[in-house]
Amino acid sequence: MYFAWIGFYTLMLIPASIVGVGCFIYGAATFSSNIPANDICEKDGIGGEVMCPQCDVKCPYWYLYESCLYSKNTYLFDNPATVFFAIFMAAWASIFLELWQRQQSVLAWDWDVQNFEDEESVRPAYEVSATEVRIGHVTGEEFAKVPYWKSGLSKMLSFISLFFLLALVLASVFGVILYRVVIGIVLYTSDNDVLRYNSNLITSVTASLINLVVIVVMGKIYRVLAIWFTNLECPRTFTEYENSFTFKMFLFQFVNYYSSLVYVAFFKGRFYGYPAEMKYNIFNYRLEQCDPAGCMMELVIQLAIIMVGKQVLNNFMEIALPLVIS
């Protein structure tokens, strides 16, 4: 069923990718007519406005036109067609779910597994751990069951460990945020014009790479722990086993993958004062803010590095590494 879902999902991505490429082409075609970006890039106009320093010590004043490259590249991904693409993807997600449910029913009928869960046999590991004998309320027959104290204790231990690791993931995101703040200040106060001009880009790329390493390492560690905790819970059937394991992995991987993206998309630059009153800081460092063109380009960079980097790593582990070893 997994490979059937992958094939169906890949097929459904074709119209979504076509619409996405079309929106990108629209942004590239109307690239030169973007009035806000043109105003920012005009040195003798709005772009010549002097901006406040990026930090409190040693950071120089700068001009708005220094954000020209960011503002132009942002338009490629954030243009009027993006609104249409967002509406299309919302409708696409609903249609995909409905069509997949239909396809799943068709496959279950073709494979004769409609009542698989009702006819599913008990896992051998469950039979070994089921030391209590009870009587069913409906059938009146005896059946073996894992003691409540054992299953309850294992589930409690599993969820405590899950929330601990989720807190660890959030702590790693906070560490990356602190890294971005410190490195951004160091690069922006550099005497090297190249480093100072590209400080936002360098900070975004290096922070995304660090975040990718944390995601991969934490994912590997938690997968091993999730399997161990699921075995400790000792589900009755293989379906219950897969459901328990999937729930743990989904909840953890959701926070692991998207917490940094959520920060950039919704929180970065929101908690920022003004030079006369800086209310928010981390260890006396001013919180980072978005580029005058917004955080979209930084979000694109981080999303590309995480998703493409994870895919490249998976392909290397599945294809290239076996060839190297052999």
Residue share in β-strands = under 5%
- Output the helix-strand order: HHEEHHHHEEHHHHEEH
Number of beta strands: 6
Amino- and carboxy-terminal Cα gap: 31 Å
Helix content: 55-70%
User: In DSSP terms, counting alpha (H) and pi (I) runs of 4 or more, how many helices?
Assistant: 11
Structural class: mainly alpha
- Strand line-up of the largest beta sheet: 1-2
Radius of gyration: 26 Å
* Main sheet properties: 2 strands, antiparallel
Anisotropy-based shape: elongated
- Low-pLDDT windows of residues: none
- For the residues shown, what is the average pLDDT? 82
What does this structure look like?
The chain is mostly helical. Helix content is about 70%, strand content about 5%. The chain has helices at about 1-30, 35-40, 70-75, 80-110, 115-120, 125-130, 150-190, 195, 200-235, 240-265, 295-325, and strands at about 50, 60-65, 130-135, 140-145, 280, 285. The strands form three sheets. A two-stranded antiparallel ribbon has the order 1-2. A two-stranded antiparallel ribbon has the order 3-4. The longest helix has about 40 residues, at about 150-190. The radius of gyration is 26 Å and the shape is elongated. The mean pLDDT is about 80.
